[in-house]
Amino acid sequence: MPDQLRAALATLGCRVNFGETDLLRGMLAAAGYRLVGFHEAADVYVVNTCTVTHVADRKSRQLLRQAARRKPGALVVAVGCYADTAADALRQIAGVDLVVGQHEEPALAARLATALQARGLVPPAARPAAAAGDVLLAPAHPARALIKVQDGCDNRCAYCVVRIARGPSRSRPADEILAEVRAVEQAGYPEIILTGINLGVYHDERSGDLAALALRILGETRSGRIRFSSIEPQDLPAGLLDLWPEPRLCRHLHIPVQSGCDRTLARMGRRYRWADFRTLAERIWARLPDAGLTTDVIAGFPGETEDDFAASLAALAGLPWSDLHVFPFSPRPGTAAAALPGAVPPDVIRRRCEALQSLAAEAGRAFRARFVGQELDVLWDGRSAGGWTGLSDNYLRVVTACAEPLLARVTRTRIGGLTDGLLRGEPVGPAVRCRVPARAGRPADGCAVAAP
Predict the structure, then answer these.
(1) Whole-angstrom Cα distance, residue 363 to residue 357?
(2) In sequence order, what E strands does 39-137 have?
(3) What is the CATH number of domain 144-369?
(4) What is the DSSP string of 301-347?
C-alpha cells in the first residue's frame, strides 16, 4: 500500500484567510491527504497568500519559494488574495505549480489530483463521500474556531486592494453558519470568531443582520465565547450593542478608523468623519465600560501634511484604546491611492509610525493597568515561559505560571500585575471548558502572520 500523500498549509493575512485555510485543511483531509506542518517535508504545499501591503506580497513570495526548496518535486500551490490579483506574477516564481483563485478553491482537491496524475503519481483515496451539508471545517488552533460569515466589500476606500481581490459583498446563509457553529461546538472549541471582509454588512434574507445572527447563535447553540472580527465604523449594526451584557459575547470590538483627521479621511474615501467615530466609541464604552477597543491607523497616506498628522495624533490620543495597529501607507496596484499626488517620504512615514506606535504602547499600558487587582475570564491558548498564555474576553494578553494543564480552557483569573505589556494572573476558579478538541492530523500552520 503506498504511503499516504502529505499536505502542508501556511497562511498570511487576516482572520478571513485563516478561516478559509481551516476549510481547505478539512477538504484536503477528506480527500485523503495526511496533514503535516508547513516546515515538514510534504508532497503538496498550499500557501494562502495576502496582498494587503507590499510587505504581505513579499512574504507570500518568500513562503512559496521556501516550499519549493523544502522538498524538490512537491506541488506548490498559491491561493488567496495575491493569487487573485497577481496570478501571472506568481506563476513566474520558480517552483510554483498552481495558482488557484478564490472561485476555484472549492475544487482544489480535484486540481491537485489532476496535477499529481500528470506527474505519474496516484492521488490519495478520498474518504467516503460526505453527506450533503456535512461540515469540513478543520480549525488549526485548539482554542478557537474561525467562522466566515461574509466575503467581499462594496466600499471604495482609495487605498484598499482587498475589495478588488474579493469582489462585491456577499453573505452566507445563516442556517449554513449555524451548522458550522454546532460542529465546532461539538468538537469542543471554547471560542468562535465570526469573520468577514466587511463583517458589519452581513445580512441573511430570513434571519436579518449581524446582530440577528449573533442572537440566533446565542439562542440555538451552546457554544462558548463568541468574538467578532473587524467591523467598519459606519456598519456596526444598530442592535449589536443591545446584546450585551450577554456573558458569552466577548467585550472587544475592532473598528478600523485609519486616521483621526477629517481631511485625510475624505481623501481615503472613508464614509465617516472623526466626530462620528468618537460618538460611536463613546456609545460602546457607555454600554461596556471595560470593553477593549482596538483600531487600525495608516501613516503617510498621500497628501497627509504635518498638520494633518498632528491633528490625527491628537484626536487618537483622546480615546482610551486597548491597542492601535499601525500600518505605513503601501500603494497597491489598481487602487485610487496609488495614483494620488503628494507621496510622503519614507523617512517621514517611519517617524509618524513611531509616534503612533508610542501612543499605542502608552494607551495599551494605561488600559491594562486598570485591571490589576481585578478578575477576568481568560481563555488559555498556548504555552509561555514556565506556564500558559491566554486572552481575556476583552482581548488582553495574560500570562500565568500555573503548572496545571490549561490549554483551551477558560478560567476566572485574578490579575496580579503588569510586566512588559503583559498582564500576570492566577486562575482562581475551575475551568469552565475542559475538553481539548481532537486535532489528529491537524497541525497548526507553520507560518502565520495574522491581522486582528
Answers:
(1) 10
(2) 44-49, 75-80, 98-99
(3) 3.80.30.20
(4) -TT--HHHHHHHHHHHTTS--SEEEEEE----TTSGGGG-S-PPPHH
Residue 44's CB is within 10 A of a number of other CB atoms, namely: 25
Cα-Cα end-to-end distance for the chain:
44
Pull the grid cell for residue 51: 496582498
User: Residue 83 to residues 36, 67, 88, 196: CA-CA distances in angstroms?
Assistant: 23, 16, 9, 19
- Tell me the fold of 375-427: OB fold (Dihydrolipoamide Acetyltransferase, E2P) (2.40.50)
Residue whose C-alpha cell is 494607551: 363
Q: Which has the closest alpha carbon to 160: 199, 200, 197, 201?
A: 197
**Is-contact 22 145, C-beta < 8 A?**
yes
Question: pLDDT tens for residues 64-91?
Answer: 999 999 999 999 999 999 999 999 999 9
**Cβ-proximal residues to 66 (8 Å cutoff; 6+ apart), any chain:** none
Torsion angle of C-alpha atoms 179, 180, 185, 188, degrees rounded to 10: 140
What is residue 258's DSSP assignment?
B
CATH number of 6-127+440-450: 3.40.50
- Please check whether residue 287 is in contact with residue 247, taking contact to mean a CB–CB distance below 8 angstroms: no
Tens digit of pLDDT for each residue in 346-404? 999 999 999 999 999 999 999 999 999 999 999 999 999 889 999 999 999 999 999 89
C-alpha to C-alpha distance for 69 and 251, rounded to whole angstroms: 44
- CB-facing half-sphere around the CA of 294: CA atoms within 13 A: 19
Domain boundaries, the chain: 6-127+440-450, 144-369, 375-427
